[in-house]
Write a structure and sequence with these properties.
This protein is mainly alpha-helical and about 280 residues long. The protein has twelve helices and four strands; from the N terminus they run H-H-H-E-H-E-E-H-E-H-H-H-H-H-H-H. It is globular.
């Protein structure tokens, strides 16, 4: 029973609550236990700017209801992934991310994942921006993987498939490349143990507002992103290949939804009239 409890069938809270808790825990671990590179002030600026932009854009658009869950997820994601040599770039990333939700839309869906788009725009526009390598250590990585999988199973089962499709495709391509080159297995396994890869897999490419509605469409979408990212990383030597691949492939969702129509995703709780998510 999608989106409900596996035991009782009762609907669980909106999956975004689980996502906020997971990302918030990772950020707290960064500040208290293990330094991933995130800093309190840039993180506060990214999160605060995302929430403020949502508030301002909602007022400009005349929306009667304000929902801060999605912008909070975007702000937390930017805090964990984005690194910049100036504080204003964190604010700019948040404004681009949240503003894109209001402007770059088609048929009631975002065209691009907000945080992913902001990262790519700033990587292209500024030399002072880079992506966190996400080397969290094996213990934290496995704990995060377990937690993110639990979020998908318990709160977002309707979109668990695309995360699994992508991670499986990405892993298969890395393993195939290692086999072709004669590399030891430790190399692709190390490449997979990236915190940035986990956040990308479970919070960006699995974004239900920017991915195809049908299961087959999501499989094709996930494989296309993995394949393009592999080409860009190893043939074009682009380090942030995952993000560029996602942004390039995302407009194909419009065509996939036309060719493979399916029921449109909705969040667990009813959406009040006038709420933009």
């Amino acid at each position: 029973m999608p989106g409900g409890s596996l035991m009782t069938g009762r609907p669980l809270p909106d999956a975004r609550y689980f996502q906020i808790a997971a990302l918030g825990c990772l950020l707290a671990i960064n500040f208290i236990l293990i330094d991933f590179g995130a800093r309190p002030l840039p993180s506060a600026i990214a999160i605060g700017s995302a929430l403020l932009t949502q508030l301002v854009c909602s007022r400009i658009a005349g929306l009667p209801h304000l929902d801060l869950r999605s912008p909070l997820i975007s702000g937390l994601s930017l805090s964990l992934l984005l690194r910049a040599d100036a504080l204003w770039l964190y604010a700019a990333a948040a404004v681009i991310a949240i503003g894109s939700k209001f402007v770059l839309r088609f048929d009631g869906k975002h065209i691009w994942n907000p945080a992913g788009l902001a990262i790519v725009v700033l990587l292209l526009a500024s030399n002072g921006v880079w992506i966190s390598p996400g080397q969290w250590g094996a213990e934290v990585w496995f704990a995060a993987l377990t937690g993110f999988l639990a979020i998908l199973v318990l709160g977002a089962a309707r979109r668990a498939d695309i995360a699994i499709f992508f991670f499986g495709s990405h892993a298969a391509l890395l393993l195939a490349r290692a086999w072709w080159l004669g590399d030891p297995l430790a190399i692709p396994l190390h490449q997979l143990q990236s915190g940035s890869l986990l956040i990308f897999t479970f919070f960006m490419i699995s974004d239900p507002r920017t991915t195809p509605d049908s299961a087959l469409g999501r499989f094709l979408f996930a494989f296309a992103v993995a394949l393009l990212a592999h080409y860009m990383a190893f043939f074009m030597q682009m380090r942030p290949a995952l993000y560029f691949a996602l942004i390039i492939i995302s407009p194909a969702t419009i065509l996939i939804d036309r060719l493979l129509p399916a029921k449109r995703f909705t969040w667990a709780d009813p959406v009040p009239q006038g709420v933009l998510r």
